[in-house]
Each structure stands twice: as structure tokens, then as C-alpha cells.
Amino acid sequence: MPEDGIKPASNFIRNIIEDDLKTGRWETHIHTRFPPEPNGYLHIGHAKSICLNFGIASDYGGLCNLRFDDTNPGKENIEYVESIKTDVRWLGFDWEDREFYASDYFEALYQYAVDLIKKEKAYVDTLSAEEIRKYRGTLTAPGTDSPYRNRSIEENLDLFSRMRGGEFAEGTHVVRAKIDMASPNLNMRDPVLYRILHAHHHRTGNKWCIYPTYDFAHGQCDSIEGITHSICTLEFEDHRPLYDWFLASLEIHHPRQIEFARLNLTHTVLSKRKLIRLVQEGHVGGWDDPRMPTIAGIRRRGYTPESIRTFCERIGVARANSMVDIALLEYCIREELNRKAPRVMGVLHPLRIVIENYPENQVEMLQAVNNPEDPKMGAREVPFSRLLYIEQEDFMENPPKSYYRLAPGREVRLRYAYFIRCTGVVKDPTTGEVIELRCMYDPATKGGDSPDGRKVKATIHWVSASHAVTAEVRLYDHLFAKENPDEDKEGPGFQVNPNSLQRLTSCKLEPSLSGATPGSRYQFERLGYFYVDPVDSDIQKKVFNRIVTLRDTWAKIQKKGA
RNA sequence: UGGGGCGUCGUCAAGCGGUAAGACACAGGAUUUUGGUUCCUGUAUUCGGAGGUUCGAAUCCUCCCGCCCCAGCCA
User: Fold this and answer.
1) What is the ipTM of this complex?
2) Is the CB atom of residue A238 positioned under 7 angstroms from any atom of strand B?
């Protein structure tokens, strides 16, 4: 369990556990589990659950298992189990040798069902799926008993064993619990325990053609593993009476189930169904598209595990449905990278400038601090010459008063270099677009200090043209422009933010970046934090993903003016 | 409509009968060779509403209102 220096906040689950500890409710250590179904990639909502379950186990001297809920072979596969293991590990958690699968317990689960049949608490039903639905009743009307509800124990046992033996087609029989068809809780109206599925299972192969439902498997799996606290999301609260019923009828270890609200995040979607659609319909590049809220996407974007853990700590855990502002996630990564990321200069939208009074073939190496937050990170040299690139945004021909940067006749500082004054503007004769600036530098201001105490309003970044490394930079923004895309009526397609990805292929970076290794992170001064994409970068061409921008006060001022 | 939950600042969220933590966001200001960082300062006389109990209520009781979940042989 990693140490992030953030003390866990009080929450109702921790309160319950501390209470249990005080009253000695359990004879053993605290035991939790993270129980994903391997039918898709994990997302930031799962990270909340992972941090919760592993975090609690570690903080209270307990253990946390990883258990795959693989009871529906049609939707599950190995790719997903591998990706889940990768993601949990990447987040910094270790399940040691406690990697389990519901399918490990198929035999035990089968015996549990036999046990219930013998106790006359379960029966084989031969109604069709549609008939079962009809017999179930509605929210307000009670259901009706199946005509097969009172089969004898012997007949039930025989049928169940023949179901297992493969004698029947899918859908012809199910095993149901015999509870109460008139219960106001629909989960108690004789729920299905086993169904026939002639499907290949990714772990048990063709050994089984009947599979337990989630409801019948989950609680018993927790019980078998000696779980003390089964932490799950709110929608399972209605199922708890059913799980209690199973555990009591079977007379086996009874974990305490606690439900909490799942995470919702602004400007994205977090339902597996929608995520899988984004991937399959090609709205994004894949599960690891850096815009995706999946762990794989977040990792590819350049977020760190620590920042995700910190985020999960800060959002808290409660029972109220809520929508967390994605700005908090962004804050968490900025906070970490401000401390850790080396600073470099890179120009995304280059504008050529010529320093007219700088000698034609001269090159100076200037000292630049690697991280003002951490002197131990040292300094580096950046080359300066007559021909430079600056950011197009850092020049305005007719600037408003609030604009501090370069303009005709104005003076600014080039970071770590010199003061320069803009003396001329070269435009494309046909389009009128500014294509080059003519400037004069003040040799007395070398390094950026002015001996005469002269002040300058802005410091801008730059890159020496002849020394620059050309790279591709991918600017990412929120996947959805809308704060809550779920509010959109289920239309024909997704309204993915058209500006969620911007690819810039001729960015000019300072030469030290030629040695940047894939997977490393930098702050491009004044622009944001960037990650060397480990998938698309190679020795010749580097690809940088923008993780997040810096806080941008100027953008705010501009927005207000507009 | 039957059942189960939930409602504390713009967003999360602590609070568990003794007089509203914290974080993000937002707004000012200071410092700054990143309009970054950091640092101050401000921001719920009030806890969905109305009654009641109490010396005292966000916390207990009653009623009302709003939102979420459940009618898969999905999880």
C-alpha cells in the first residue's frame, strides 16, 4: 500500500469498521475484496472502489482480495482480466497470492444450490424467460407462483443434475430460490440461481453448461473467502435481503455488506455500457485513448497513480449520489507535477522572430533552472541565437490594455535570455497573416535581469530555430463539452467534444528534449504538463500528450472580456 | 404507484443533542524571470420545507417536497 502523505478522511464506512473493531464483531482481521467483472476496462469509478477496499484493508491491518466475478461467460474474456490486473497494479495495490475467480467456486456453488433444494428452498422451474417475467408481477402488483414451484426434492435434484449434464437446451430450465412471489422487494420473488448457458468459459472451458447468476454467486464467494466487509455500490442495497437469505439458509459465514455511491465525473461518462460504445463505434481510439476516463486512458494521458489515489481520497465516500467536478482531478495532477516535473520550453504554434542586432552566426548557451520548486533538480543549458520561435499567442498587433505580452514597440523578457523589443512585423502579402517579427535585444539584460532596474510586464518562452527539435504534440480536452453528457437524450450517437483532441505536428521544442524518454513527464513552461507517449513515440519522432494545462489566468481574463 | 435509499456552500464532504471542519471552484490582494507556484483575505447566522420535543436541534419526532435505484435466465 503506497504512502501518499494524505491522511484518510473520516467516512461512514471507516466509522462502521472502527465500530466493528471496537465491539469485536469479527474474530479475524478485516478482509475486503475488489470484485470486478472482466467484461470491460476499469475506469476512474473503479479506482474509487479499489482505493477504498485496498486502503481500508491496509489501514486496519487487514487484507484485500482481487476476485473476478466471472459468472457470465458470454461477456467476459482474458483480455479484460489482464487489463484489470495491470490497472490495479499500476494504481499501486498488491493482492499478493489472493487472486480469485467466482469460477474457482463453481463446484461449491453447485453444492450450495443442491443444499437449498434439499432444504426445499429452491426448485427447478421450467417456465420460459418470458413467462417468468409475467409471473413476477410488477412494482405494485404481487407475482404468482410458478406451476413448477412444488416439485419434489427428488425431481428437482434429478433435473438439476441433468441440467449440469447438458441434457437441456438453453432457456428450458432454471433453478430458482423459493422465497416469496408477493414480496414488495422484487429481488425476493423467487430469483434465478442457475441458468443453462452452453458457452465456453475463459477459465473453466466447457466443463460447465450451467452458470450461477451474480446474485447467487457474489455473496457466497465473499463468504467462502472469509470477507468481513463486502463493500459495493448503492444499487445492490435492494439485493442485500436476498444475500442475507442465502447466507442464513446455507448457514455459512456472513459478511457485512456496506453500500456507497458510485462516482460521477463532469464532462465524461462512467457507465461501462457507454464506454464500450465509445470504443466500438470509434468515437475514440480505443480503451486507452487519452481522453477516456478508463485507467488505461488516464495512464496513457500521463496521469500518475499517486494523483489518482489522492483524488480518490479527496472525493470522499458517502451514500448520496453526486457529480464530482473534473477540475478536482486536474488539480491533483497539477499539484504533484508542479513538485516533480522538470521544466522545459516548447513552442506549440511557432512564430519566427529575428533578433536583428544579434550576430548572424553566434550561439550562446544560457542557464535555465529545471524546477524552481526543487533546487536539487539543478539546471541545464539552452542555446540562444538570432533566429527564434515564440508562441503565436504571445504576440498581438493591436493588444488590449490587459495584454502584457509582445506587441509592436513593446518590450518583454525571453525567459532566461534577454529583453527584446518588437521593431517590425512581417505579414503575408496575400493573407495579411503575421509570419515573422523583427526584434532588437538588449545585450545588458543577459540571463533576463535588467541592470538598470527596468521592468517588463511579461516573460515569454522561446526556442532557437536552428536547434529546435520538431515533435508532435496532442492537446487533449474534456471528452464531452457538456458538464453532464448523460443529460443528453439517448440520441443516435455521442456528442463527443470536437475539440477534445488537437494534433499539432510541427511543434518546436528545446534541444534537451531530444533525449526525452517515453513515459516521462515535463512542464512546458507557461503551457502545461506533458507526457511522452509511450505508444506512438519513437527515436526519430516524439509524441507528447498534454496531461493538463497550467492554470491560466489570462484565459480567464479573456473569457470575461468576451 | 409497492419497496429501498438520499437531500449540509457553485461541486464534493465532515459533523452522531452543545451552538456549521476541510478540499476544489470562485473573487480580491501580496510576492514572482512561468498571467505558473506560494502566501494572505473573502465566501452557508445556516443544514430540502413546515411543525414539534429540548435550556439547547444539521443532529431526536411528525408531516410534506425533491432526486436516485429495483419488474435481466446482466453485474
Assistant:
1) 0.97
2) yes
